[in-house]
Design a protein that fits this description.
By secondary structure, the chain is an alpha/beta fold. Helices cover 23% and strands 29% of the residues. The protein has 10 helices and 34 strands. Strands 24, 25, 26, 28, 29, 30, 31, 32 and 34 form a 9-stranded antiparallel sheet that branches. The longest helix has 18 residues, at 2-19. It is globular, with a radius of gyration of 27 Å. The termini are far apart.
């Protein structure tokens, strides 16, 4: 009898192991791995997708071939609980696979994908605010492991929460000359170097990209992935594959990466320099991204001389390269009015000392441009291009002075209950906040000795009281003014209020000073 009980316990234990349900965190990646046939061209000839069910929620992500007879379907669960799935394919081995997994609650640092919020801003899927403080590391995924590790460590210790980088390499001698950075794997298979078969992807190349996106995800950095770029210049032909191959490439990228919660899609960098594609072609590619991404990740495109029409419905936000837009205040509010979408100034020149004019502005100038973007209700992206440290290309480590000031700015923006929006954008070009409650006034390059306490009267009535802090945006200090200010109408101006005692605030007479003015509860 004792022996039978032992056998029963062993059976129950084994059965429990066999029936244990796979668990995946909410907004994590569930990966279904299937064995199939690689006869012929599985990239062309095999259709594969799965349908995932949870109560009244359904997703249908496409699968992709990952080499050596292995097919994968990646899925991002958006609800907690049990998900069931079934596969559909024209290949017998891949057809009709069924199963289930359990979606657990998201961890404390997992807020889901980023989406547009309040028309001009962003937030995570769980409602947590997201302010993009991006940086540029175009080629970091093609570097050696020590540089990639240094890049991750640098990002962990700096304010940047979004990184722009290329999905496929630019044509450069260092990647083909057999040196330290010689690329062993390329995006496509070849029958001889630079003789690519665009119908066959090279899974080994993309496995490196998988790992890099995962590493960014683990440290809370959004991967702003640039799908196309003009830096091939016809030498490899990646920028002139033809629309049929372009669409196949887009579908492969959607199948492989849409399940990562930290993905943003950038259709191109400097798109108008890609002479093989016009705006109608970009429309087609945008719609393909929109259709094949089941989760609706953010979508934009980065311009060169010709600006794409960001008003198109498949564009979620503006990704702009227009340096003059942040060299003065007032342009970002205009762009918001034109596009009615979030404005991200993704290239505003870079802090550095290289010969190229776009990579040799001072740290002070870069931070100044960040503030001009923010005061207009927009966002900006960092870059560093010193001869000693070419961060925008390779990643690695940062040596500039701007990151610390950008982090200071980021903390100031987070230390408020409202998003920054222009207060009176037609007349007050350097003022953001929430009318009646919170004001941030940035004086930029004006070195003022004093400022008379005068505000727009929108949402204000006589008797409202305020406290003021003087902010040195370069010196990174916040000094409170030892005075309470009470507003009354400004005589002769029906649009302004002033302090009842005509108070004037003394300022340090230097550039890059700001005021933070906050309403005191009545």
């Amino acid at each position: 009898m004792k022996f039978l009980k032992i056998l029963l316990l062993i059976f129950i234990s084994s059965y429990g192991v066999l029936m244990a349900q796979e668990e995946v965190e909410k907004w994590g990646v569930f990966e279904l791995v299937l064995e199939g046939s690689d006869v012929g061209n599985p990239f062309l000839e095999t259709d594969l997708h799965a349908v995932f069910f949870h109560k009244d929620t359904t997703f249908s992500p496409e699968g992709f071939y990952d080499g050596n007879g292995v097919f994968k379907i990646r899925f991002m669960p958006t609800r907690e609980g049990t998900w069931t799935y079934k596969t559909f394919s024209n290949q017998e081995e891949l057809e009709g696979n069924e199963g289930e997994f359990f979606c657990t609650p998201a961890g404390s640092e997992n807020h889901g994908r980023v989406k547009v919020a309040e028309q001009y801003h962003f937030e995570y899927e769980d409602g947590t605010e997201f302010m993009p403080f991006g940086t540029t590391i175009y080629e970091w995924t093609f570097q050696n492991e020590s540089t990639k590790a240094a890049t991750i460590e640098t990002l962990k210790n700096n304010p940047f929460n979004k990184a722009r980088f290329l999905a496929i390499p630019p044509h450069k001698e260092k990647y083909i000359d057999g040196g330290e950075l010689h690329l062993k794997d390329y995006p496509f298979e070849d029958t001889g170097k630079e003789d690519w078969d665009f119908t066959r992807f090279n899974p080994e190349f993309f496995k490196n990209l998988d790992e890099c996106i995962t590493r960014l995800n683990e440290i809370g950095v959004e991967a702003d992935l640039v799908l196309f770029h003009p830096y091939d210049k016809g030498k490899w032909g990646f920028d002139m594959m033809g629309m049929e191959n372009n669409l196949r490439y887009v579908r492969y990228m959607m199948a492989r990466y849409a399940a990562y919660k930290n993905i943003w899609w950038s259709l191109a960098n400097e798109n108008s320099f890609i002479k093989d594609l016009d705006d109608e072609d970009w429309d087609i590619l945008f719609k393909e991204v929109q259709e094949k991404d089941p989760y609706g990740h953010l979508r934009s495109i980065h311009n060169a001389g010709r600006i794409y029409d960001y008003n198109r419905p498949w564009v979620t936000h503006v990704s702009l390269q227009y340096y003059n837009a942040v060299r003065v205040p007032g342009v970002s509010p205009l762009l918001r009015d034109i596009y009615r979408k979030p404005i991200v100034h993704d290239e505003i020149n870079y802090e550095g000392d290289i010969e190229k004019r776009w990579g040799r502005i001072s740290a002070e100038e870069l931070v100044f441009r960040f503030w001009n973007a923010a005061i207009g209700g927009a966002y900006a992206t960092h870059g560093e291009s010193y001869e000693e440290s070419d961060w925008i290309s390779h990643g690695g480590t940062l040596i500039g002075e701007s990151p610390a000031r950008i982090e200071f700015m980021k903390n100031l923006m987070a230390d408020k209950p409202w998003k920054w929006n222009p207060i009176d954008q037609y007349y007050e070009l350097n003022m953001a906040g929430k009318a009646g409650l919170y004001y941030l006034i940035y004086f930029g390059e004006e070195a003022l000795e004093d400022w008379a306490f005068v505000l727009p009267n929108k949402e204000l009535k006589s008797g409202a009281k305020f406290k003021v802090e003087i902010i040195d945006t370069w010196g990174m200090t916040v000094v409170p003014v030892d005075q309470v200010f009470e507003v009354v109408p400004l005589e002769g101006d029906g649009y302004k209020v002033r302090d009842k005692d005509n108070a004037v605030i003394s300022l340090p007479g230097q550039k890059y000073i700001a005021l933070r003015i906050q309403r005191i509860k009545d």
